[in-house]
Amino acid sequence: MVKLLVFDFDGTLVDSQSISIKIYNQLADKYHVKKIKSFDTIKKLPLHERFKTLNLPIYKLPLFAADFTKQYKNSLETIALVTGMREILIELKKKGYELAIVSSNSESNIRDYLGEKQINVFETIINSHNILGKDKVIKKLLISKMLESSEVIYVGDEIRDVIACKKLGIKIIWANWGYDLLEMLQGEQPDYIAYSPEDILSIINLQ
To answer: What is the distance between the alpha carbons of residues 160 and 162, in angstroms, rounded to a whole number?
Structure first.
């Protein structure tokens, strides 16, 4: 029986692609990395290939991410919730599911955003810190909630979300409106695909 629904934030709950690219390009000169001219080209690449193409080495990520987070906070009011997501979250909460967020964005940014949008359905919000280590954070969440993998479903839009969930044996709903392209996945496939927020509710109702 599913008890906990875990959501990614950027790309899954909110449409932050354009502002993320804007902030990245504003920081590009400071960190001596290449600017993004066309995200359609970049998003076709695996994450490590994106970093390589942009000349953004892993060792620069912590400082870059810290600067990015500060700039992101100043742009919260310009970021839109994915259309239809508010209603779905409220309905899932009414049905008795516990809702959580695991994101590489900061907990402060997420809480401020949800506060501004008056969305009070999430009991737990966790920053994953390590952009490539979401599985470790999700595992700690399961332990803290004393839940089995079979009692959790994750909703995300990036390849690393699928990889993390497969490591833990957690079912994942792929949000097909997000950052990564479904055709980029090789080998491991998501358990379900949602083409709209309404599909998330339909999938959960079948559990």
So the answer is: 5
pLDDT in tens, 3-54: 999 999 999 999 998 999 999 999 999 999 999 888 777 777 777 788 888 8
At 102, is the secondary structure helix, strand, or coil?
A: strand
Can you tell me the distance from the alpha carbon of 107 to that of 190, in angstroms, rounded to the nearest whole number? 26
Tokens of 84: 């239809």
Helix (H, G, I), strand (E, B) or coil at 82: coil
Q: How far apart are CA 128 and CA 10, in angstroms?
A: 13
Cβ proximity of 119 and 9 under 8 Å: no
The CA-based angle 58-59-65, given to 5 degrees, is 80
DSSP 79: P
Supply the CATH classification number for the domain 4-15+81-205.
3.40.50.1000
Q: What is each CA distance from 3 to 91, 108, 151, in whole angstroms?
A: 14, 25, 5
DSSP-assigned beta bridge partners for residue 156: 174
| Amino acid letter for position 173 | I
Closest CA to 99 of 1, 8, 27, 33: 8
CA atoms within 13 A on the CB side of 177: 19
pTM (two decimals): 0.91
Closest listed residue to residue 7, CA positions, set 123, 108, 113, 91: 123
d(CA 32, CA 166) in angstroms, rounded, equals 35
